[in-house]
Amino acid sequence: MTTPYFDLVDIIRAIQKHRRFIIIVTVVAVILGALFFAVRKKKYKAEAKFLVTNPLYGDRNYLFRNRDTRFIDFFGGDDDLDKVTAFAGSDTVRDRIIRNCQFQEVYKSDINDPKGHAYLMTIFNKNFNIKRTEYKDMEVSYIAYDAQTAANVANMSVKVIEEMYRSYYTNIKQSVEKSITNKVTQLDSSIETLTDTLATMRDKYKIYDIISPSRENVISGEIKGGGGAGYGKAIEEIQNIESIKDQYVTDRARYISELNEFAASTNSSMQFLKPITTAEPPINPNGPGLLLTAVIAALLGFFFSVIYIVLMAYYRMLNTVER
User: CB under 8 Å, gap of 24 or more: what pairs does 75-80 form?
Assistant: First the structure.
């Protein structure tokens, strides 16, 4: 059996012979593409851009310069951008976004029902996207059938991500602040107890001089008092108790100062994400326009019609070969 010979010249001849068919298929494909574009339900894509600030600027050590000053970049690094991306991909953030944007009303599904909630989460995950650019800013986008809904979801996403990202740092600081507050409460109770004890002993032995050895710039002099049995021991006990009380008072003042610093570093006015482009309701629908759709349909129609003609020509040549 001889092998059929089918080269480029045969392909060109087959195409020329059936060029009318190819043109008809291409025109039909363009018409179908235009019809598809006309009947297709339009989707709109809204985008919002923001910068990630360096969270170290919100730390009290840099806010109040408790240590040596060193330069810190105002903008967050790659690790900070990765953390923001992780927060944006979490179910906690996405659940809050769909609830704040009233997805149950937009997509007509019961958000309190497990299946309905899963349906809304699927819609959000399908249409939501977050990415970082080469300029170290980040961009969130959402696609919806309604332009205003797309813009609302994109803006709400930036707001919720910022709140969750900031709360990650502020919650740690607030837990430390709570621990210090509890310690201050304990110190208040101890100071009050020691004060009552000292007042009782001073009234009993008539000792009203400052005799605490822990206080600085205090000149020891003659201590006046009632004298009598136990007077010397009373002086020693007052000194011991007074030194402990003074240390408690010093610690309490330092703790209160730290509480004020933590309160300033957890203030809600500090933002860790800075929006630079707010999402607006898009005017043009998402995806290719009418002209591009027609061009794509024409190319597809031309390609498949040519493939069909070439295959049929080769098949007919095979049938002409003797077996």
Answer: 75/51, 75/136, 76/51, 76/52, 76/136, 76/272, 80/52, 80/54, 80/55
Cβ atoms of 41 and 285 closer than 8 Å: no
> How many angstroms separate the CA atoms of 31 and 166, rounded?
53
Render pLDDT for 172-231 as a digit per residue (tens, 0 to 9): 887 888 888 898 899 899 999 988 888 888 888 777 777 766 555 444 555 555 555 677
- The structure's pTM equals 0.69
Q: Count CB-CB contacts under 10 A for residue 9.
A: 8
Residues 6+ away with beta carbon under 8 Å from 225: 205, 206, 207, 209, 231, 234, 235
The dihedral sign for the CA sequence 143, 146, 150, 153 = negative
Residue-by-residue DSSP string for 226-256: --STTHHHHHHHHHHHHHHHHHHHHHHHHHH
Q: How many residues are recorded in the chain?
A: 323
SS3 3: coil
Q: Which residue has the tokens 């310690």?
A: 183
